[in-house]
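Quiz preparation item.
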């Protein structure tokens, strides 16, 4: 190589190395998510939650996380099938409560409660900073009591449905001394879609902004026409979700769901957190209703 060529090659190599040194940290910064910004809700998301009573974040759980939940859910479904041949109703097994029936010989899973006892991965997935940080923002607290770690199945045409309600009704049922200590409902339900949730497969319907009207004590209303009027059910809209989407739901939001009339299952993974001290009663499942740090 001539001297001129040698000098030119060396110069080009040096420039290339320098560019690479400058470029690598830039690309690394871009590729590694800024954790803080990625997990915190923006002010406009918080405003939407407060205005509508619910906030949907698309693609919140990765495909891999959805797959992990699905595997656990499949195992629990098999356990439910086996258990239901011996016993129905509320069945405690491995620290998890199976609420199951047989309808015309077919398994009906109403809910599987505190799933993390039998499948610890489900508690781990629920307690990720990306879920807990928004919960802390919504509750206005660095701590919470995790009351719910639950799977809802709707198997094709199994008839499982959820009557119109506000989640506060369940909080009052478990603890008659339930108190709204933060004056914002003191509870937030998070719903992660495992399967796509559609009108056909029995997705949740909700009444936008109904949370603004406080506890409507819908459980005390026996007349369907009265329920329709008080809960303003003619305003209800479906919550159509893709796998991995998450919903943060206010405890006063009116919602319910119809049976799955499709040929594919509809599963959701729900986790509910209450403001410390609002609930004072135990919940079913080994390790449930414990105080956890949200930070
Ligand atoms: O699973 C459903 O369709 C309804 C769930 C629900 O209403 C609830 O968790 O409060």
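Solution:
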């Amino acid at each position: 190589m001539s001297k001129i060529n040698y000098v030119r090659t060396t110069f080009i190599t040096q420039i290339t190395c320098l560019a690479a040194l400058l470029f690598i940290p830039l690309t690394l910064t871009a590729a590694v998510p800024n954790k803080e910004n990625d997990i915190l809700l923006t002010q406009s998301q918080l405003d939407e939650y407060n205005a509508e009573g619910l906030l949907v974040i698309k693609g919140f759980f990765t495909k891999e996380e959805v797959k992990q939940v699905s595997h656990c859910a499949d195992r629990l479904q098999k356990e439910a099938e086996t258990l239901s041949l011996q016993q129905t109703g509320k069945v405690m097994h491995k620290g998890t409560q199976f609420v199951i029936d047989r309808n015309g010989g077919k398994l009906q899973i109403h809910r599987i409660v505190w799933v993390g006892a039998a499948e610890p991965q489900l508690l781990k997935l629920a307690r990720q900073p990306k879920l807990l940080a928004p919960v802390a923002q919504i509750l206005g607290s660095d701590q919470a009591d995790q009351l719910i770690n639950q799977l809802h199945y709707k198997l094709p045409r199994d008839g499982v449905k959820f009557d119109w309600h506000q989640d506060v009704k369940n909080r009052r049922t478990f603890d008659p001394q339930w108190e709204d200590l933060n004056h914002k409902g003191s509870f937030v339900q998070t719903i992660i879609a495992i399967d796509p949730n559609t009108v056909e497969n029995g997705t949740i319907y909700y009444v936008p902004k109904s949370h603004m009207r406080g506890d409507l004590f819908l459980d005390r209303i026996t007349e369907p026409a009265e329920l329709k009027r008080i809960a303003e059910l003619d305003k209800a809209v479906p919550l159509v979700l893709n796998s991995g989407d998450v919903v943060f739901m206010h405890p006063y939001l009116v919602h319910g769901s119809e049976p799955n009339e499709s040929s594919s299952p509809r599963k959701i993974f729900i986790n509910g957190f209450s403001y410390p001290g609002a609930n004072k009663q135990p919940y079913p499942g080994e390790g449930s209703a414990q105080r956890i740090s949200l930070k």
